[in-house]
Please model this.
Amino acid sequence: MPSDQLNLWENQKDDKWLPFNDAREIVRTYGFEYKEEWEAFVNGKFTLKESLPSNVPDRPNEVYKHFGWKGWKDWLIDPKLQKLYTIFFEAREFVRCLRLKNKSYWVEYINQENPIHLKFNLCIPEKPNLEYQNKGWKDWNDWFGKNIEFKDFSSTRKFVRSLKLKSVADWKIYCKGKPEKFGKKPKNIFAYPEIAYKNKRWES
Model:
């Protein structure tokens, strides 16, 4: 083993940190998913969580840099439990159809036992502001579509019928953005009208 790696190993032993795998196993029991959550935790923001053992570092990316470190997702979540989330733009299209007023309503919705997006085979994160960083996320108002004046039911139905789509499959293709076939969907048209207009004249 090169001398520089030997020195790193000696430094790790002197610091009395747990071996990487043992420390990671402990950390994964805390239920964090994002680096930002971890940083808040080690800075005392999660007061209801049990304190981190003294032999587990709060800067694991530095301590274990040469001893197993693979990134924050690996540090915080067992690969078998990691989720493959729906891409940002598709998730946002669905959320806007829920017509939620603010973040408090979002927390209430996402913590339901069976939130309705599961019926559409969508996997939407509880913390979209963290999951979709650098993937399209702007802010909560954009997530909810608060600055968009969506068309009412009658205007929407009239518009959709003018497209002369032949099936639900065509509608899904249209909403996912296939302008070469049907044109681009205006942002003030709900992608899931059956959700947006559930109690507002929707039939089928």
Remarks:
- Residues 3-15 form the longest helix (13 residues).
- The radius of gyration is 23 Å.
